[in-house]
Amino acid sequence: MFRFASIRLLRALITILAVITFAFVVLRLSGDPAQVMLGPDVPQESVDAFRKAWGLDQPLWIQYLSYIRAIFTGDFGVSMRDKASAMQLVIERIPATLQLTIPALFLKVVIGIPAGVYAALHRQSAIDRGVILAAIFGFTIPSFVMGLLLVLIFSITLGLLPSGGQDTWQHGILPTLTMSIGGIGILARFSRSAMIEVMGQPYIRTASAKGMKWQDVVWKHALPNAAVPIVTIVGFMVGTLIAGAVVVESIFSWPGIGRLLVVSVSNRDLAVVQCILLLVAATMVVSNLIVDLLYGFLDPRLRAQSAH
Amino acid sequence: MVKNLVELRGLKVAFDGVQVLHGIDLDIARGEAIGLVGESGCGKSVTWLAALGLLPGKATVSGSVRVDGQEILAQPRHVLEGVRGKRIAMIFQDPSSSLNPVLRVGRQITEALAIHRGLHGEAAKAEALRLLDMVGIPDARRRIELFPHEFSGGQCQRVMIAMALAGEPDLLVADEPTTALDATIQAQILDLLIALRAETGMATIFISHDLGAVSQVCERACVMYAGRIVEQGTIQALFDNPRHPYTRGLFDAIPRLDGPRERLIPIPGTVPNPRDLPEGCAFSPRCSHAAIDCRTRMPALHSTDDGRLLSCHHPVGSHPPIGVTHPAEARVLEPLS
C-alpha cells in the first residue's frame, strides 16, 4: 500500500511539473510581456529596464530554474500588472468560480445520472429516446452558443434574468445553467450506456432468477457495477471545478478564475497564468487520485490488481 | 393437489418476430430429473428462461407455464418473483460471470435467504455457512467474506448451487452447469447435483449437450432440435434404441471407449437458421432417412408403443442400431463436445 501510494504521489508530482514547465516555456516563447505591458510606442530603454526588473533578460533556463526554486519555497511570483502576489490574486478569485462550478456539478450529477439510468431501464421507450435526444443536444452545443442562446431567451426576450455580472444570486443562474447542460448530457449518455451494459450481464439474470424484486436488482446489483465508468466522468468534472468556467465567465462577465486567466494571458502576466495552470493541474491530479482510490472501493477486482 | 409440479404447454418464444421455440409441452413430476439435450441454439435454455420471465424485453413469449397448477406466464412481476428462487431455482453456464463481481459471496447467498426464508443477520450467515458446507466449499467460514473473483470456476458454480438451494426450491434448473468447467471439475459438480437431489428430493432439469452427463443425472430426457422436442423418453430407451434420426446421430457422434477404434459418424450440415427453417421436418435436410413427406409435412410429436414421444415420419429401427451391441453407457462416458 505504501509503495502504491508513493508511486502515485511521484506520478502526480511529475504531472504537475510537466504542466508548469510546458506553461513556462510556451508563455515565454509566445510573446514579450514587456511589449504587451508597456505598449508599442515606449522607448527601448524602458523596455530593457522592464525586462531587467522582471528577470526577462536572463537566459530561459536560468529563469526556469529560479522559478522552480521559488515555487519550492512557496513563492509563486508577483503579478506584473497589479504588483501583488500572483497566488493571492488567484486565490481571491476562487470563491466566485466555485459559486458557479459547484452548483453546476451538482446539477450534472443529480439530473444527468438519474436520467441516464432511467433511460437505460426503459430502453426504446419514448422517454429513452427523449433523453438521448436531449443529451446529444446538450453536449454538442458549445457553451458559448448555449450561453448566448440562454441570454437571448431569458434576458432579452423574456427579461427574467440578468445577462451578466455577479450582484445577486439571480446573476448566477444563467452561467450555472450554461455550464451544466453539456455535463448533464455527457453524464446521461454515459450512465445510460454503463447501465445498459450492466443490465445485460449474467449476474443480473442471476439476481432476478433468485427472486429479488426488480428495484433491488437495479439498486443493489446493477448500480454498484455501473458506478465505475460514471465515477470516472464525475471525477473528470471535479477536476475542472477551478478552470472549467473560462468561456462562461467571459460571456457572463463573472469575476472568477476563468476571466482572470483570459485577461492575464492577453496581458502576458506570466506569474498569474502560471499560478492558475499550477492550480488547475493540481486539482486534476488530486481528483484523479480520488477516483483511483474510489475504483478500489467500488470494484474489489481492481483493488486486488493495484495491490500487486 | 395437482399431479405435476410444473407443466409447460405450447410454450413459444419469438425474438423480434423470429420464432425460436415452436411450442414446448413438458410435464415435470415432483422429484424427477429430466435432461434437455440438443445442439447450441435449439432452445433448451430459452425454454426455461422464458418460463421464468428472464428473457430480455424483445422476446415474445406465449403458451402456458403452470407451477402446482398456478399459471405464471404473463403474470404480474410479483407472481414471478415469488416463483423464482423459491419454487424454481436456476443455475447457469458460466458461473464466474453469473455471480455479482462487486458483492461478497456471503452477501449474495444471504440475500436469497432473506427473500425466501426471512433469515437475517447471524441466522442468515449461519445458514449460508451450512449451505456452503453442503456444496463442498472448504473453509467456508473464511471464504464467505470473499468476492467471486477469488474463487475458481468450479467453486463459483458451487456457490451458485448454494444460492439456488437457499430458497429450498422444488425444482432446480441447471443450464449447462458444467460446460465452462474442466473435465474433472465437471464430474465433481455432477456428483454434487446427484447427491443434493437425493438429499433434498428436489426435481431437476438438466440442460446439456453432453449426453453422458445427462445419463448420469437424469431418468428421462428430451432431445430438442430447432425449437422443438423431437424425442422424449427414459434414458434407457433413448440410449438403447434411439428412434429419431437426430437422436441416433447424436449417439453416433460419441467416441467409443470399448472395442476397436472406428470412425465417428458426424451429422452432416448445420442447425438451420431460425429465420429460415426448412418446410416440413426441420431436421430433414440433414437426415439420411428423409423422404418426400418429411420435406412437406411437419411430423407431430406422438406417443409410441414403448411409451416414448417421437416426432418423425420415418423413425430409425426399433431394434438396437447396427454396431451397438453393448448398452450405450460405454459410449457416453466421454462428453459429446
From TrEMBL, chain A:
InterPro entries: BPD_transp_1_N, MetI-like, MetI-like_sf. CDD domains: TM_PBP2. GO terms for cellular component: plasma membrane. Its main location: membrane. Residues 94-295 form the ABC transmembrane type-1 domain. GO terms for molecular function: dipeptide transmembrane transporter activity. The chain crosses the membrane at residues 12-31, 100-121, 133-161, 173-190, 230-251, 271-298. It is a multi-pass membrane protein. Belongs to the binding-protein-dependent transport system permease family. This is Peptide/nickel transport system permease protein.
